[in-house]
UniProtKB/TrEMBL annotation:
Function: Serine peptidase whose precise substrate specificity remains unclear. Does not cleave peptides after a arginine or lysine residue. Regulates trans-Golgi network morphology and sorting by regulating the membrane binding of the AP-1 complex. May play a role in the regulation of synaptic vesicle exocytosis.
Origin species: Trypanosoma brucei equiperdum
One GO-annotated biological process of the protein: proteolysis
Family statement: Belongs to the peptidase S9A family.
Boundaries of every Peptidase S9 prolyl oligopeptidase catalytic domain copy: 790-1016
Protein name: Prolyl endopeptidase-like
Region annotation (Disordered) ranges: 273-292
Length: 1028
């Protein structure tokens, strides 16, 4: 996919010309000039025109080179692999079974529940048996099933083109739903809706409503269109901030001139049969009259939905009892009681900084309905993690930066679980006053004092808790000065009946300050200070539960009454360890009998059981096994001896990723679930049950519940393979002495970089395959590689697919992240350059056939790597890329800048950080004209609040200016060395309808994947043609 300067394709829209407006920036004596700084003005019509022109250029170039057709082919192939009427495994929460469904052709899931009864007692086993017989079988409809939330229907009720679901919590009385929805076109500003739980089964209503409804559903299915599509989507969007009845949105507007009452009655009385519905390229037609499926003029859907107003049973709609949008909110919500809840508020820079109490019994306009309970003044800290402890005895929230965490604890009412009466009162951490610039000004209620200022500086408790609410105590777990990163949970009987303790997973991000550890604090050591001015405990009181193991990193601990589940990482893979709580009881009694005051720490390697040994060998043949836990320990000890003799885990062991997943949400359950993921084997869900606990002969039963099916062309996992390759981190620079490493504060250690690879066996040819390599390497995130059926579209075309786990990520624990963080940030890019070089020089990828992709911070990695080693890459795909990092990090008024200093360093105040980031910044280090660059496709989003659209746009503007200089240097000739000059593609696309995360609907997201893969295939085909 190259453009030639010899001729111009007549049907390719030419890219825009960018005007230069010099903008001078000086810091620490360094002067930079940005001629495209003006592109940041999103209010400028010129900027929008440029973005649309870039979009038109990319779309026309795609069409001219066959990309549009290829994208459509890939989309259809990948969609055929799906089970479109998918459903999740049910899990139990209190009185109901909960699960989700998807409807063919609809983007978003439906959330369902059934009451727990004698008839449904074996629901999970029935579903598992159904799918064991036929994985493609749809989950049947049940008479007692209630679809309590349908995101497709909800989006249509709100007239939203873009919708993203955040949190969803069922109230303590199980009759209401608190749901957070992004109604801001992807800006990540969420609105909270309180919905009465009723049946909103729209598909069922269509089929039961009338012959017209059944015909409409059949026509939509035949056309592969969503049953939720209708011209009513073109009506004005709902904009009021007051509470409303979603049913009101379905009331027929008689003011629409295109429909008369007579038309409605006629349409209803003469409902066509399914045979009268036909589909065509332009949409759906009724009785031969073709209409577009989303046209605002009258269509079959207009008549149908109008007629529904006259039916005996109206169309289902969500009964929204309240819409909470006084403050811009995050996606988190937590019920305190059946009438009160907590949610988190955003400041003007999109930082979650407030905990807000909402009272559903108060009038929406009442100053007592929304009250700020806590406000975090430190801009480096974010408020998050509204939750209850595992044993449901405490509500909690955290404030954290990337290296320090503080947890606030709210005891539940005496004798109750998941219930906190009153308004939480925090006696610390408040700012002197609140900002009002993030209060919505969309016609909502005027904010009272209690909504905008510190509650402790304006009112007494008696005044503050208005509406009859008493205050509820909130305690700091430890002093913020401790400066540790931790995760916290509570177990009511960790060391014996009524011998409760707090379980603390600690990671330290200071170089040389120690390692992770799992600790505990006994309940009777906690200081419950009535004044709430003191923390509950100091770190000196924490006792080590597990000793440090340099080969195993503990990411988290899940507490259940009879066992602990430890999520750990080992050899760049993840697994789950099991520790029966009775083992801790025995350990505690033995220690007490010996007279010791300190419990000897356990070994995470020897005292916990690695469940990977049960669910991974062999993965597909395990159906139902049961064995003694004691024998499991013996088997594990023998296996560990073998591994120590052979030098650790083998490659095949590491490719499986084992994770705990949602099961029954009850503390005393003895059954949990594991998911086993693999790059080329569809994910499998297992059920594990601990038995014989009271009898002292503990057993472990493991049952295979479900394996994700793969449709389309017959699929056999044995046709594919995967491995982890370890790349020397200095490989690219010792094999190419002309390359210069990006600077870091300290010389990085030479280590092995894990790279996850997969391929189709019959197509693997050493040194002959193209490769698609992805990377992220930031914020301690892990790139565990799950099976994705979409990836088969590349593997079946001969690609080797890879993911580079470079430093900065979390694949090998906290130390791995620290090694690529702050002033060591250049290590991430250097690692990736070495991986790119190694893949080609060792034959995993054909020379010159490597395409790389990164999103957000990953976009920074691939573009920075391109700048220092452009010859290594055939093409670069950068989605919402952080390419102008120096300019952004110098502007603390932008969203996320202050928190990004924790990841990149602070160039505003630190001259050394400025110098290093200056050398890393992709925008400031584009190679000069004459240096061959790869094909480049940049994808951005208009509503992105994390990485502004202007970063990629200005980057592309510089690339286009650079290209013009190259042409001028050639004397505007179309020939290069006697041949037509083939120029690499520069493409930019801005999606005006989404935010940082892209499309949220599954079909829209699949189109994004198909577009990216089409570009990858096209540039490979072009490279192959040019080499022959």
């Amino acid at each position: 996919m190259s453009t030639s300067s010899e001729h111009s394709e007549p049907d390719i829209v030419q890219p825009p010309k960018y005007g230069r407006v010099e903008y001078r920036m000086e810091h620490f004596g360094d002067v930079r000039t940005d001629p495209y700084h003006w592109l940041r003005d999103g209010r400028s019509s010129e900027v929008r025109k440029l973005l649309r022109r870039e979009n038109a250029h990319m779309e026309s170039a795609f069409a001219a080179y066959g990309g549009k057709r290829l994208s459509r082919t890939l989309y259809n192939q990948m969609r055929a692999r799906w089970k479109e009427d998918e459903a999740s495994l049910p899990y139990r929460d209190r009185s109901y079974w909960y699960y989700s469904r998807t409807v063919p052709n609809a983007d978003h899931p439906l959330f369902c529940r059934r009451p727990v009864s004698v008839d449904s007692g074996t629901f999970v086993e029935e579903v598992a048996h159904l799918w064991a017989q036929d994985p493609h079988a749809p989950l049947p409809a049940y008479e007692d099933e209630v679809v309590f939330f349908d995101l497709n229907l909800f989006a249509r009720e709100l007239r939203l083109d873009y919708v993203e679901l955040g949190d969803m919590e069922v109230s303590p009385d199980e009759q209401q739903l608190a749901v957070t929805v992004d109604c801001s076109s992807g800006r990540e500003v969420f609105t909270i809706f309180i919905v009465e739980i009723t049946n909103v089964n729209y598909e069922q209503w269509l089929h039961q409503h009338s012959e017209l409804g059944r015909a409409w559903a059949a026509a939509m299915a035949q056309s592969k269109l969503s049953i939720y599509n209708s011209p009513t989507s073109a009506l004005p969007r709902y904009s009021s901030s007051k509470s409303f009845s979603a049913a009101d949105d379905y009331t027929f507007r008689t003011s629409r001139k295109s429909v008369s009452t007579g038309d409605i009655v006629d349409a209803f009385q003469s409902a066509p049969s399914s045979s009268q519905f036909t589909s065509g390229a332009g949409g759906v037609s009724v009785g031969g009259s073709e209409r577009g499926s989303t046209n605002a003029s009258v269509t079959s859907a207009d008549a149908f939905f109008a007629a529904s107003a006259f039916s005996r049973k109206p169309a289902p709609s969500h009964k929204v009892k309240r819409r909470i949008d006084v403050f811009d909110a995050t996606d988190e919500v937590l019920w305190l009681s059946s009438t009160t809840l907590l949610y988190l508020g955003l400041d003007s820079r999109m930082r979650s900084h407030r905990v807000i109490f909402h009272d559903l019994t108060a009038d929406e306009d009442s100053p007592h309905s929304d009250v700020i309970c806590y406000e975090e003044p430190n801009e480096a800290f974010w408020v998050s993690s509204l939750c209850y402890s595992a044993d449901d005895r405490f509500a909690m929230f955290t404030t954290s930066s990337s290296g320090s965490t503080q947890v606030y604890v709210m005891p539940c009412d005496e004798g109750k679980k998941r219930w906190v009466s009153g308004v939480p009162v925090v006696h610390c951490g408040f700012a002197s006053g609140g900002d009002s610039d993030d209060i919505r000004s969309n016609g909502g209620p005027t904010c009272s004092t209690s909504r905008t200022t510190s509650i402790h500086t304006t009112r007494s408790n008696a005044d503050f808790v208005g509406g009859g609410h008493a205050s509820a105590a909130v305690h700091r777990f430890t002093d913020q000065a401790e400066d540790v990163d931790l995760d916290l949970d509570h177990h009511s009987s960790l060391f014996g009946e009524a011998i409760g303790a707090w379980v603390i997973v600690i990671t330290s991000l200071k170089r040389g300050s120690g390692h992770w550890r799992v600790a505990y604090v006994l309940d009777d050591k906690m200081l419950w200070d009535e004044s709430q001015n003191l923390s509950l405990c100091e770190s000196t009181m924490w006792q080590t539960l597990f000793t440090y193991d340099p080969q195993i990193f503990v990411e988290g601990v899940e507490c259940w009454r009879d066992y602990l589940l430890l999520s750990v990482r080992q050899a760049a893979s993840s697994t789950v360890l099991l520790l029966p709580v009775r083992k801790l009881w025995s350990h505690w009694l033995d220690n007490r009998d010996s007279g010791s005051s300190c419990l000897p720490p356990l070994s995470v390697r020897h005292d916990a059981l690695d469940l990977r040994a049960v669910v991974c060998y062999p993965l597909v043949s395990v159906s139902n096994v049961c064995f003694s836990v004691e024998k499991f320990y013996q088997m594990q000890w023998r296996e560990q001896e073998r591994q120590e003799f052979e030098g650790g885990l083998g490659e095949s062991d590491c490719v499986h990723f084992v994770r705990s997943c949602a099961g029954d949400d009850v503390f005393d359950t003895r059954t949990w679930r594991l998911v086993v993921a693999h790059p080329t084997i569809p994910s499998v869900t297992f059920s594990c049950t601990l038995g014989g606990v009271e009898e002292g002969e503990t057993s472990l039963s493991v049952k295979k519940l479900y394996q994700v099916p793969v449709g389309g062309t017959p699929f056999c996992a044995d046709d594919y393979d995967a491995t982890i390759v370890w790349v020397p981190s200095d490989y690219g620079f010792r094999s190419d002495l002309l390359l210069q490493m990006l600077p870091t504060k300290e010389p990085p250690d030479v280590v092995g970089i894990p790279v996850y690879l997969c391929w189709k066996k019959s197509l693997l040819e050493r040194g002959g395959n193209p490769m698609f390599l992805t990377v992220y390497g930031s914020y301690g995130e892990c790139c565990d590689v799950d099976f994705e059926s979409e990836r088969l579209a590349l593997l079946d075309r001969g690609f080797v697919w890879g993911a580079a786990a470079v430093r900065g990520g979390g694949e090998l624990g906290t130390g791995w992240r620290v090694a690529g963080r702050k002033l060591q940030r250049g290590t991430t890019v250097n690692d990736f350059v070495s991986v790119a070089s190694f893949m080609q020089k060792t034959g995993w990828c054909a020379d010159g056939r490597l395409v790389v992709s990164g999103a957000s911070a990953g976009g920074f990695v691939v573009t920075a790597a391109m700048n220092i080693a452009p010859h290594l890459f055939l093409a670069v795909v950068a989605s919402v890329p952080f390419v102008d990092c120096l300019t952004t990090l110098l502007d603390p008024t932008l969203p996320l800048t202050v928190s990004e200093w924790e990841e990149f360093g602070n160039p505003l105040e630190d001259a050394e950080a400025y110098s290093i980031i200056r050398a890393l910044s992709p925008m400031d280090n584009i190679p000069p004209p004459g240096v061959a660059l790869p094909h480049i496709m940049m994808l951005t989003a208009w509503h992105d609040t994390r990485v502004g659209y202007w970063e990629s746009l200005a980057f592309v503007a510089r690339l286009r200016e650079r290209r013009e200089k190259e042409r001028a240097n050639r004397g505007n000739t179309s020939m290069c060395d006697g041949k037509p000059c083939a120029e690499r593609a520069i493409l930019h696309y801005c999606d005006f309808a989404v935010g940082h995360g892209g499309a949220t609907g599954r079909y829209q997201r699949l189109k994004e994947v198909a577009r990216e893969y089409a570009f990858v295939v096209l540039v490979q085909e072009a490279a192959e043609q040019s080499s022959t």
